[in-house]
């Protein structure tokens, strides 16, 4: 946890990052279809706009739209005003577009740098957690096993794609027939459906919405059950494919063992989510904060991984940040619904949330600060590059 003191990347690591070359895999069919649109729209960006600023604006649009949804219902179980679903759909499209053209803007302005990959993929990791929380919200899953599966189905592919790049040096855009762009369009559609048909559309019976369907496909089922199959259970299936692909990408017994330990470590993130006790009313009503606390762990580990693969530093299997949750879970285990235990639980709950936010922000600040200083560039501004002193 040296990043807390402002130092994470070693001197050799900085040199490796400077010489790092991003090797992307092939575009998905959907990416190829949209590429002419992205090439056209990037021309509307001003030349002074830094590529990282382009990415950040897209993330802010998505994050701001979803935070508004969360303000209306922190439990993630109740319908919210219909316009928020439209705002989230617009936010997803904005992030998708700006995330796709940030690299084009970098080449257009001659401002490409290794910092771009770190910043871009770091924002990607945050965006996918927002999208998975959005699924939990519009389906009304709250803090539940299916809610955790929703997080798993979105977070596992991205994390493992970066682990595969750690092993092979190539970042793949798609998982089998599924790619991120197509998944984003599906989420836009489901949010727009809530906007046009009502916030409670997913709680309606299939037999009422589609009366022509056979009884065995409609009786007892809500629309949300079908959407869960499409967005969650299929995603869980793809995650198994990713695990196999990850293990195959690791050459040699030692690397395969490392990959296996990384899988176990990553599953620990969902273990943290599961340990939050939804039977406690306060925890259930603040599901959004519980999820974000653990999501910070995912973002932190993913950003560590991206830095390590670019710097060729060793990515540790053990991360002591997991211990930050220990005090809360101990206090939760002693909870007995008395005013004293309720107060202690709330303090520990919010303290865990704040600490996770702070240390995640600190890691991002440290990594960006070290790189901008070493590369003599700015994160959000295009400026003249200084020549290195001989």
Automatic annotation (TrEMBL):
UniProt record similarity statement: Belongs to the CDP-alcohol phosphatidyltransferase class-I family.
Subcellular localization: Membrane
Protein name: Ethanolaminephosphotransferase
InterPro entries noted in UniProt: CDP-OH_P_trans, CDP-OH_PTrfase_TM_dom, CDP_ALCOHOL_P_TRANSF_CS, CHOPT
Species of origin: Euplotes crassus
Pfam families assigned: CDP-OH_P_transf (PF01066)
One GO BP annotation of this record: phospholipid biosynthetic process
The keyword Transmembrane is assigned to this record: yes
Keywords: Membrane, Transferase, Transmembrane, Transmembrane helix
Domain of life: Eukaryota
Annotated transmembrane regions: 53-71, 83-101, 149-173, 223-246, 258-276, 288-310, 317-335, 347-364
Key word Heme present: no
Gene Ontology molecular-function annotations: phosphotransferase activity, for other substituted phosphate groups
Primary location class: membrane
Example of a GO cellular component annotation carried by this entry: membrane
